[in-house]
């Protein structure tokens, strides 16, 4: 029963007999026009949806040996020309798309487990 649950919710690696968390990335093209919704409200709704996705992924249980969830993000006018961005600049890119009056934009947010690196102490 437990093995069945783990295989459904985790990726099983037979070689090392360990489990890795399986996640669903956010890959979506948002349209910046709606017949009944004001553009400013639409943009705020999009930002909220992305923020909600990130919060949901951060609250998931961490696999053993992992310190935090890291995010790989891409943003662009279309999926083909999307460029890698930092997670903290998502809202700035959405605001820029609104300012440029784009019809739509593509965003991709993929979560991955990460381990904090060792801090180097410089002695003087």
Structure description:
There is one protein chain. With 124 residues, the chain is an alpha+beta fold. It has one domain (23-114). The chain is built from three helices and six strands, in the order αβββαββαβ. It has helices spanning 2-9, 39-58, 90-99; strands at residues 10-13, 18-21, 26-31, 68-76, 83-85, 104-114. A four-stranded antiparallel beta sheet has the order 3-6-4-5, with helices on one face. Strands 1-2 form a two-stranded antiparallel sheet. It starts with a helix and ends in a 10-residue tail after the last strand.
Q: Summary?
A:
The chain is of the alpha+beta class and 124 residues long.
Fold topology:
Layout: H1 2-9, E1 10-13, E2 18-21, E3 26-31, H2 39-58, E4 68-76, E5 83-85, H3 90-99, E6 104-114
Antiparallel strand pairs: 1-2, 3-6, 4-5, 4-6
Structure keywords:
6 strands, 124 residues, two-stranded antiparallel ribbon, alpha+beta, disordered N terminus, four-stranded antiparallel β-sheet
Tally of distinct domains: 1
Question: How much helical structure, as a percent, in the residues?
Answer: 25-40%
Shape: elongated
CA radius of gyration: 19 Å
